[in-house]
Amino acid sequence: MNSYTGQVKDHSKKIYTRTGDQGETRLIRGARVPKYNARIEANGMIDELNSWIGYVRSINGDHVVDKMLGRLQPRLNLLCSDVAAPIDKTEPEDGIPRVQVHWERELEKEMGEMEKDLMVLNHAILPGGNPTGASLHLARTTCRRAELLLVFLQDAEGNVNPEAIRFINRLSDYLFILSQWSNYRALKGEGDF
């Protein structure tokens, strides 16, 4: 019995398939690529970002911040699917779930609301503050690396959803502001120079 759901677990399904034992993995459309492929590396960094957000949620005690982060995790899962399926310009409607333009706009709207509570930054800040705020800074730096890898992939292959790149760029800004806002809500600011 699965202790999380109370359902009987099917032991005939294994997490391992042995199909990657030779150093390759399969993309969504079936192509096999080396595990060091730029697309796989970008997906790994997005997965790391999602894991950081899961960690932040596990230590965070602010239900408002948790709700905001909870909306991001499924989107990061979908972003991984989007990246794993190269854009095929000959098939614009390929049935693959893709990052949507409204995701970026929603982040911008929430950033505007959070910024109303924050002082205007006129100096650099040192990442830190409460555990949630400090951990959000770690998520932000991971997000920046994921963005770098997506841009590299776009330059190398040219078949990345442009909305995915815009979303991950805006998300790093969002995580920066959310870290400050989390500290504001916890009444503990980051350090400064």
Your description of this structure?
Helix content is 57%, strand content 5%. The chain has 193 residues and is mainly alpha-helical. The protein has a domain at 37-86 and 98-116 and 129-192: Cobalamin adenosyltransferase-like (Hypothetical Protein Ta1238, Chain: A), CATH 1.20.1200.10. The strands form two sheets. Strands 1-2 form a two-stranded antiparallel sheet. It has a two-stranded antiparallel ribbon with strand order 3-4. The radius of gyration is 19 Å and the shape is globular.
Helix share of residues? 55-70%
What's the assembly state of these chains?
single chain
Give the N-terminus to C-terminus distance in angstroms. Answer: 54 Å
Low-confidence stretches: none
Q: Please compute the radius of gyration using only Cα atoms.
A: 19 Å
**CATH homologous superfamily name of the domain at 37-86 and 98-116 and 129-192?**
Cobalamin adenosyltransferase-like
- The gross shape turns out to be globular
- Helix/strand-derived category reads mainly alpha
Number of strands: 4
Average predicted confidence as pLDDT: 85
Q: So how many helices?
A: 5
- What is the CATH class designation of the domain at 37-86 and 98-116 and 129-192? Mainly Alpha
Instruction: Give the CATH architecture of the domain at 37-86 and 98-116 and 129-192.
Output: Up-down Bundle
Question: How much of the residues is beta strand, in percent?
Answer: 5-15%
Major sheet details: 2 strands, antiparallel
* CATH topology term of the domain at 37-86 and 98-116 and 129-192: Hypothetical Protein Ta1238, Chain: A
Strand order of the largest sheet: 1-2
What is the ordering of alpha helices and beta strands? Answer: EEHHHEHHE
